[in-house]
Design a protein that fits this description.
alpha+beta, Thrombin, subunit H, 6-stranded antiparallel barrel, 6-stranded antiparallel beta barrel, 4 helices, 12 strands, 35% helix, 33% strand
Length: 285
């Protein structure tokens, strides 16, 4: 019976030669200058390693797209639940307006688009590019929000695209109120002592106290953002006071780096169905 021999002399010599060549090449590279090593690295990346690097980049983009799809699916399910809950309220509102003779309610319309952060300036990016359908041309300035809360303001708009500023921009201002309407004020970006960008609520009367954790929503004053959009939660009272008013430090709900998809607020319109239903209800009384 014959047995196969493991490790022939020819293969062993070939392995030794290959190991010696690799060791020599390693020593050769170690003795080169940094610029020479970088040049060799660039040559290898653009030739031999190009297919592998391309495949790695493709897999990374695929993983990123998969994560975005998962996020969008969760947001879609949450929005679908909100729409179902609001259906009964909308019908009830139409019936009450028809009974009292009020005109149809102006509805808020939104267009979905992609939020692309701009090039960082001084380490922070305050601007973004907004891309949406070609037939959407919002009247600027227009509020940009995510399903969770305020993102920023669209400053210029063309057919299907526009430029905007995140809430972190020094010029950003938005009118806010508590959900019950007990306090209203102006919210702006604020650099906290620790270096983190927060929000500062100003213009609150001195005798009015807002507990920590209170949700602040847009008041709708100014016509840039619709009323009722979440903005942030109160953290604590700020140290700065001015006359008969005081300020509060606010934790924003939406961070610019977390936003990929946004909603631009369009000019509301009266639903024809609401007008007709209201007229029929008044005519039947």
């Amino acid at each position: 019976m014959r047995y196969l021999t493991v490790g022939r002399p020819e293969s062993q010599r070939r392995d030794l030669v290959l190991a010696a060549a690799l060791a020599f090449f390693s020593l050769f590279l170690a003795g080169l200058s940094l610029d020479s090593r970088l040049s060799i690295t660039e040559v290898l990346r653009s030739s031999i390693l190009a297919p592998f690097l391309g495949a790695q980049s493709m897999f990374a983009r695929g993983a990123d797209l998969s994560e975005q799809v998962t996020t969008l699916t969760i947001e879609r399910e949450a929005l679908a639940a909100r729409v179902l809950e609001a259906a009964d309220l909308e019908l009830e509102n139409q019936q009450l307006r028809a009974i009292t003779g009020l005109p149809g309610r102006r509805i808020s319309e939104f267009a979905v688009g992609e939020v692309i952060p701009g090039a960082p300036e001084a380490g922070v990016s305050h601007s973004f590019l907004f891309r949406t359908r070609a037939d959407v041309v919002p009247v600027t300035p227009a509020g940009i929000s995510a399903p969770d809360g305020i993102v920023g303001v669209l400053r210029t708009a063309h057919r299907g695209s526009g430029l905007g500023e995140f809430w972190t921009h020094p010029d950003f201002r938005v009118g806010v109120r508590t959900p019950t309407g007990s306090a209203t004020g102006i919210l702006r970006s604020f650099l906290a002592p620790g270096g983190e960008t927060m929000m500062l609520l100003e213009g609150i009367p001195f005798q009015t106290d807002i507990p920590a954790g209170t949700l602040l929503v847009t008041s709708g004053i100014g016509g840039v953002h619709p009323a009722g959009v979440p903005v942030g939660r109160v953290v604590e009272e700020a140290e700065s006071r001015s006359g008969w008013s005081h300020s509060f430090l606010v934790e924003p709900i939406v961070r610019p780096g977390q936003v990929r998809v946004g909603l631009v607020w369009l000019v509301g319109s009266v639903l024809p169905s609401q007008d007709s239903s209201a007229a029929e209800a008044r005519g039947g009384d």
